[in-house]
Design brief:
two-stranded antiparallel sheet, 7 helices
Length: about 150
């Protein structure tokens, strides 16, 4: 995050997080939370509110910069969402992640620790989880599977 974005966050949100008991409440106040509107089981428009225009603009610029960065958690998160949902949804997700990280940093008085660009692949490719997924897929196809460790 750049200096100007940090200044805007401090000016618009402040450092007193007692007003926002959770990160979700901060995101909702800022108008950065994902929209969720359904009626009768049918998903309707999930547009977000306008919120604070200075904060939204600063977070959007920070999200674009994070998306262009290399080997960071935010860049890999952005790339994953962009592949499934499109670039605008990905920017909104990255913007939300930055604001949530800000809340955790200020509320917990901690420093930011990036999870790394390979966090999503490390999380998904655990051997036990992979084995269970493959066994489940074979059982859905009608096979009985017995697993024995390799010698």
């Amino acid at each position: 995050m750049g200096r100007v974005t940090a200044i805007v966050l401090l000016a618009e949100v402040g450092i007193d997080m007692s007003r926002f008991p959770t990160a979700a409440q901060l995101a909702s106040w800022a108008g950065i939370c994902p929209g969720n509107h359904a009626s009768g089981g049918k998903g309707l428009s999930g547009r977000t509110r306008h919120g604070n225009k200075w904060l939204r603009t600063a977070l959007t610029e920070a999200a674009w910069a994070a998306a262009r960065s290399r080997n960071t958690y935010l860049a890999s998160q952005h790339a994953q969402v962009r592949g499934r949902r499109g670039i605008q949804k990905a920017i909104g997700t990255t913007r939300h992640d930055i604001l949530v990280a800000y809340w955790h940093i200020v509320a917990g008085n901690t420093v930011y620790r990036d999870l790394g660009g390979d966090w999503h692949t490390r999380r998904r490719r655990k051997p036990e989880k992979r084995k269970n997924t493959l066994v489940g897929d074979l059982e859905k196809l009608g096979y009985t599977v017995t697993i024995e460790p390799a010698a």
